Amino acid sequence: MARRRGDAVRLALAALAGGLAAGILLLAGSALTGLGAAAGGRESSVVTALYRQASPAVVQVQASDRTGSGFLVDRRGHVVTNAHVVNGATSITVTTSDGAKHSAKIVGIDTAADLAVIKISGVSGLTPATFASSAKVAIGDSVIAVGNAEGYGGSPSVTGATNSRTSTYC
User: Fold this and answer.
1) First and final C-alpha spacing in the chain
2) N or C: less crowded end of the chain, CB within 10 Å?
3) Which residues have CB under 8 Å from 70's CB, separation 6+?
């Protein structure tokens, strides 16, 4: 049973690693195009709309003396974060978008991929991340990353890129 659970965690981590970089939620391609049309085509409006959609899922992870970012993947409290943030931690605290602090435990960790799944318990009203179809993402599509790395400002920040251009939005 433990082996089966470990295989399931590795599979989940591998699937998440395929669509994620550094434990930060990435939104791309058709999501940007669709929201661009809804926002009147202005890039700042698109970024604002994506930020509003994604930020409730972004959490801050405090693990012993390290701070990082993560995001909720379901309403049960599973969070994806970086392995280097939580590996070897004696305690893990997750701060959700409403400012509430919750204790968390490691569910699975893959140090080679630098990804971990942790779980907070006894919570309700969580808003997990939503994902677009990876089949609709193409090389050269614009992306944004919404995260809370290093706990800057206590709220998520946004970084975007189109081909070789990168901008940071706060």
Assistant:
1) 45
2) N
3) 23, 58, 59, 60, 61, 79, 80, 81, 82, 85, 94, 118, 148
Residue 24 DSSP one-character state: B
pTM over 0.90: no
Average pLDDT over residues 12-39: 44
Q: DSSP secondary-structure letter at 134?
A: G
Convert the pLDDT of each residue in 76-127 to its tens digit. Answer: 999 999 999 999 999 999 999 899 999 999 999 999 999 999 999 888 899 9
If residue 19 lies in a helix (H) or strand (E), which one and from where to where? helix 2-19
Q: What is the pLDDT of residues 114-169, one digit of tens each?
A: 999 999 988 889 999 887 777 877 787 777 777 776 555 445 555 555 444 444 44
Q: Cβ(79)–Cβ(95) under 8 Å?
A: no
Amino acid letter, 160? G
Q: Is 114 helix (H, G, I), strand (E, B) or coil?
A: coil
Contact 114, 23 (CB under 8 A): yes
Cα angle for residues 88, 89, 95 (degrees, 5° grid): 145
